[in-house]
């Protein structure tokens, strides 16, 4: 996957950090399903779809929803008219998103390579750069996070259910009450499901 971005620069969302070296990009993209989100903060269809995509991404990667983040990375390819519009849009999206810098000609190369003619468009790629889904917008709207399982199987990802040495750099200790909170949350869901069944 890093080969697609060789010699290119990606920006970390809401930070001025650039992810550009082969090592950094390789680590950010290795063994992950990549979503290329072609969109604009000004497009009415994108404004309806973007909150769904944000929730989709969070439900698969945020600790609040899942025990272990899914192997998923998203790169925003903007069609915004100004850098301010792109920045304003990205401020409303998850911090883990990456973005092609505003004004970079690489955006046009990506549009041509993946035949993107209208927005919103979400191209789903395997770690080796092969296309899994040409435009997953409708699939995300219809199935939500459940569609990730299909992509994961298609991408033949190695399931990481352990921490690698570099993961410990960013590892934060969880609260001592975290297991109790998780258990309570699961019990509450089971109780709700039983109540629905009884009705």
TrEMBL record:
PROSITE patterns: THIOREDOXIN_2. One of its GO terms (biological process) is photoreceptor cell maintenance. Pfam families: Thioredoxin_8. Residues 1-142 form the Thioredoxin domain. Signal peptide: none annotated. Gene3D superfamilies: Glutaredoxin. One of its GO terms (cellular component) is mitochondrion. This is Nucleoredoxin-like 1. It comes from Eurypyga helias.
